[in-house]
Automatic annotation (TrEMBL):
<dbReference type="GO" id="GO:0016491">
    <property type="term" value="F:oxidoreductase activity"/>
</dbReference>
<dbReference type="InterPro" id="IPR044861">
    <property type="entry name" value="IPNS-like_FE2OG_OXY"/>
</dbReference>
<keyword id="KW-0408">Iron</keyword>
<dbReference type="Pfam" id="PF14226">
    <property type="entry name" value="DIOX_N"/>
</dbReference>
<dbReference type="Pfam" id="PF03171">
    <property type="entry name" value="2OG-FeII_Oxy"/>
</dbReference>
<keyword id="KW-0560">Oxidoreductase</keyword>
<dbReference type="InterPro" id="IPR005123">
    <property type="entry name" value="Oxoglu/Fe-dep_dioxygenase_dom"/>
</dbReference>
<dbReference type="InterPro" id="IPR050295">
    <property type="entry name" value="Plant_2OG-oxidoreductases"/>
</dbReference>
<comment type="similarity">
    <text>Belongs to the iron/ascorbate-dependent oxidoreductase family.</text>
</comment>
<dbReference type="InterPro" id="IPR026992">
    <property type="entry name" value="DIOX_N"/>
</dbReference>
<protein>
    <recommendedName>
        <fullName>Fe2OG dioxygenase domain-containing protein</fullName>
    </recommendedName>
</protein>
<dbReference type="GO" id="GO:0046872">
    <property type="term" value="F:metal ion binding"/>
</dbReference>
<feature type="domain" description="Fe2OG dioxygenase">
    <location>
        <begin position="124"/>
        <end position="224"/>
    </location>
</feature>
<dbReference type="InterPro" id="IPR027443">
    <property type="entry name" value="IPNS-like_sf"/>
</dbReference>
<keyword id="KW-0479">Metal-binding</keyword>
Length: 278
């Protein structure tokens, strides 16, 4: 869905747009200070590299954890250039509050015990991913991001420049998403599909590239707390609506997610109850 009237300051959003473009335009020697360390997902680099043989996405990005604050890496968030760091602090706080409001409304719509949502997501993990898709001389032969569904509960996406590329899978076909002015694109991820016992389904999507201009986007992911256990909300499980997914610790969930190669919506299949099918 595209979220209008979200309450975010348009001037703040515009500053973040400009500052992200400036951040990717930093000289290479400045970027190396923020490069991914071996075995780490944060910093400049690529994600979901499961083998040396796989075909890589035509993109790279910058990833960092914003909340809870004690999870922030000392060489990343605190070292970002000013005023980008301060603006990103305000932006990420606003996006966290927005994500919690959306989740609260979803809980009400499902007539779920509100404590279920608060227990798992009240102090959830928020991570940020700034994506850069350079022009490609043969765009028909590559993808900026291969088809996948997000592992988080919610993804709130900000389009940085005016270049299209995001597509969602609907009725077996790929449909382009044209961002509305001043709107956030809100995407449901695997964690929310599991938590709502399949009521809200995660959305498979991909990113295409073109030969003329680069594309930039900024994704904010809101997820369950790291010391929690992910599974269907207890208040949604009844004799008529049995659990469709197994429970797993959030830490183990993310370990498996980041060590896998993205392939459509295949990631959460390992948590489905075998007698429920897909």
């Amino acid at each position: 869905m595209q979220l209008m009237n979200h309450g975010m300051s348009s001037s703040l959003v515009e500053k973040v747009r400009v500052e992200i473009q400036d951040f990717f335009n930093l000289p290479i020697d400045e970027k190396t200070k923020f490069w991914q360390q071996p075995g780490d997902i944060e910093g400049f680099g690529q994600l979901f590299i499961a083998s040396e043989e796989q075909k890589l996405d035509w993109a790279y990005g910058f990833t960092l954890i914003s909340f809870p604050t004690h999870l922030r890496k000392s060489h990343l968030f605190p070292k970002l250039p000013l005023p980008f760091r301060d603006d990103l602090e305000v932006y990420s706080t606003e996006l966290k509050n927005l994500a919690l409001k959306i989740l609260d409304q979803m809980a009400k719509a499902l007539r779920m015990d509100p404590n279920d949502m608060k227990e798992l997501f009240g102090n959830g993990r928020q991570s940020l991913r700034m994506n850069y898709y350079p022009p490609c001389p043969k765009p028909e032969q590559v993808l900026g991001f291969k088809p996948h569904s997000d592992g988080a509960a919610l993804t709130i996406l900000l389009q940085i420049n005016e270049m299209d590329g995001l597509q969602i899978k609907k009725d077996g076909k790929w449909v382009a998403v044209k961002p509305l002015p001043d709107a956030f694109i809100v995407n449901i991820g695997d964690a929310l599909e599991i938590f709502t016992n399949g009521t809200y389904r995660s959305i498979e999507h991909r990113v295409t590239v073109n030969s003329v201009k680069e594309r930039l986007s900024f994704a904010t992911f809101y997820s369950p707390k790291l010391d929690g256990e992910l599974g269907p909300a207890p208040s949604l499980i009844t004799s008529k609506t049995p659990a469709l997914f197994k429970k797993i610790s959030v830490v183990d969930y993310w370990k498996r997610f980041y060590s896998s190669e993205l392939r459509g919506k295949s990631f959460i299949d390992f948590l489905r109850m075998q007698d429920q099918g897909t």
